[in-house]
Amino acid sequence: MSPATFTAMCSANASTPRRWDGTPARTPRPRSLRVAPDSPTRLVRTAQPGRCPDCGNHVDWHPRVGTDDRPAGLHPQELPAAAVPAVSRWHVSSGIAHPAHDGTPWCRIPHTALCPARSAPAALTPQLAALRRHLALHTRRLINNGTLTTPATPPAPEAAESCRPARPIAQLLSVRYIAGRPVDAIRRVAQTRQRHRCTRPVLDDQAPHGTWTLAPTTLLGRRPPSLSLPVGRMAVYDLTHLPYTEQLRWRHQHCPDHATSSAADLALTEWEPFDLRLHHQHIHLRLPGGTRTQHHGT
After folding, report:
1. Are 191 and 263 within 8 A, CB to CB?
2. Binning pLDDT at 50, 70 and 90, where does residue 158 land?
3. Most buried pick, 9, 35, 124, 265, via CB within 10 A?
C-alpha cells in the first residue's frame, strides 16, 4: 500500500464518526411506510389520531370490520378488560377495529362511552367513571383556554336551504354518497413528502367540476322505503359526467397532483353511502343559491 493511499484511508476514517469500539456510527436512513398490496385499506396500519369535536379529547380512528364504512373512534389507551363492560370491549388487529374481546387482559373502549359531552352510560364501572372525570377536567381546561368552543346554534331551516349544504349528497361511480363537510371544504387524505396531510381541497380550479342538479330521491328502479320519508327531487352534486379516473379521485379524496400517487393515506375518507332512512335530514329540495344548475362546489 502506497503512503498516499494509507494517508487517504486514515483521513477518511478520521472524518467518519465511530463508536467506542471503533465501529462506524451510521444512522439508518428513515424509510417511508408503504401500503401492502393485500391491505384492505390504503391507510398506514397505525391509528389515525384526532380529537372529539364535542369534548376536544384525543380519539384514535380505525376502519372497522364489516360493511359499515364509518370509522370507529376508540380511546387512545388500552384498559383492563375487567374494568370494561363486555358490550363495550373492542380490540384492534392489523389496524382494523373489531367490536369484540380477543381474550387478552386488555381491551379498547369507544370514546363515546367516555365522552363527557354525552350522557354517561348506565353501566359505568368505578375505573371508567374516574377516567370520564379526568376527560371532563381536560375539556374544561380547553374551554377556559379558548381552544375548544361550544357548538353554535344551528341556523334556521330557511337560511340553511339557501346556502351551501353542510353535508352534501354526491353521485359518483354510480353510487350516491353523503360527505362530511361542504363540497369545497372536502380535504384530501394522502400524505405529502413531509409526511403531513395536505390542506388542499379535493375541489380544484384546474380540474373539471361536478354539477349541482335536482335528481330523484330514489334511484331508478327502486321504490321508496317508507311513505313517511321525503319522496320527490333533491339537490345532488353530480360527478357521473366526469371521466372514470376523475370520479375515482373524488372517491379517494385526492388532489389532481396525487391522483395516481402510491403514498399512503393519513386519514379516512369522509364519504358514507347515502341512506334515505339515515340521512333524510340532510336532503335539500332546492339547489344551493336558488339557481337551476351550478358547476361549482359552492
Report:
1. yes
2. very low
3. 265
Element (H, E) at 245: helix 244-252
Q: For residue 117, what is its C-alpha cell?
A: 359531552
Phi-psi region of 13 (alpha: psi -120 to 50; beta: other; left: phi over 0): alpha
Residues 266, 234: Cα–Cα separation, whole Å: 33
Burial 100-127 (b: 16+ CB within 10 A, else e): ebeeeeebbbbbbbbbbbeeeeeebeee
Phi, psi of 82 (to 5 degrees): -65, -20
| pLDDT given at position 220 | 44
State the pTM of this model.
0.55
> Could you give the CA distance from residue 92 to residue 72 in angstroms, rounded to a whole number?
10
Q: What is the 3-state secondary structure (H, E, C) of 144-186?
A: HCCCCCCCCCCCCHHHHHHCCCCCCEEEECCEEEECCCCHHHC
**Higher per-residue confidence, 144 vs 7:** 144
Cα–Cα distance for residue pair 168/220, rounded to 1 Å: 20
CA atoms of 140 and 171, how far apart (whole Å): 41
- What count of other Cβ atoms lies within 10 Å of the Cβ of residue 98? 17
Q: Assign residue 204 a region: left if phi > 0, alpha if psi is -120 to 50, beta otherwise?
A: beta
